[in-house]
Amino acid sequence: MLRLGEIQRLVVVKTADHGAYLAQDRNADSERILLPIKQVPEGTHVGSEIEVFIYKDSKDRLIATVNRPLIMLNETAVLKVKEVTKIGAFLDWGLEKDLLLPFKQQTKKLHVGEECLVALYIDKSSRLCLTMNVYEYLDTDSNYKTGDEVEGRVYLISDNFGAFVAVDDEYSALIPSKELYGDVKVGQVINARVTEVKEDGKLTLSIRKKAYIQMDEDAVRVMEVIDAFDGVLPFNDKASPETIKREFNMSKNEFKRAVGRLYKERRIEITDKSIRKLK
């Protein structure tokens, strides 16, 4: 059986001016596929075995190539957008015919020249197609452990769960909503810290640094905001979590730790209704 989207070693059963016909074996009933003449290696003859990738041409016919694509069935890869049309984006996967990423399989708006993480699957019309919903295609067998620093690409953001990340563009990870601060976007490559390795191998990440390091940075951020309010913040450390997140992109606990640090250093005073910078 010829397997769409995969590499197979096939045997030449017939040669012609326009190419070589390949099959799994020399049985007359075997399904055949064309390897175009420009792809046929020199010296090829009936009985030769050739390793080829199988896809479909512009007329939706199975065709073989000796070229290796940048992505294969059920794999993930970072590909570049070549064209954006009314039906979706076409991405360069290393073969002559660019591959479609339909709008319904996109998790953000794409632009020509942009790179994005995608997976390759077979759609309901039996065609090779791309998706940015790569969750089920990512691996869970990384060697990372708690405390490790990693790099990953955000491929989906959920209000309920957080930011879904492909570590090394390969491994499944999540930044939980409670850890999601700052302007994190789909497609962004982020540096993060592993806070947990779950039983199924999926990684939990944080983009916040270890507490003692983060506290220093948060204290600087608090002072910057106080300065922006001309030295008097119109609320104190009892402000709502929503207000704190809006103004500082911090959790309430992180804000209180930073304010506590500044208070001990005698850089601020805290009143019933404000936080004031000390000169």
Features:
mainly beta, 3 helices, 279 residues, elongated, 37% strand, 5-stranded antiparallel beta sheet
Architecture overview:
- The structure is a single chain.
- This protein has 279 residues and is mostly beta strands.
- The protein has helices spanning 211-228, 241-248, 252-264; strands at 7-16, 19-23, 33-36, 49-56, 62-65, 76-84, 88-92, 99-102, 115-122, 128-131, 149-158, 162-167, 171-176, 189-197, 203-206, 232-233, 268-270, 275-277.
- It has a five-stranded antiparallel sheet with strand order 3-2-1-4-5, with no helix packed on it.
- Strand 6 and strand 7 form a beta hairpin.
- Helix 1 crosses helix 3.
- The longest helix has 18 residues, at 211-228.
- The chain is elongated, with a radius of gyration of 27 Å.
- The mean pLDDT is 89.
What's the short story on this structure?
This protein has 279 residues and is mainly beta. The chain is 14% helix and 37% strand.
Give the CA-CA distance, first to last residue.
Answer: 79 Å
What does the radius of gyration come to?
27 Å
Number of helices: 3
- Strands, count: 18
Shape: elongated
Strand-pairing-aware structural class: mainly beta
Proportion of β residues?
35-45%
**Order of SSEs:** EEEEEEEEEEEEEEEHEHHEE
Portion in helices: 10-25%
> Which segments are poorly predicted (pLDDT under 50) over 5 or more consecutive residues?
none
Strand order of the largest sheet: 3-2-1-4-5
Average pLDDT over all residues: 89
How is the biggest beta sheet arranged?
A: 5 strands, antiparallel
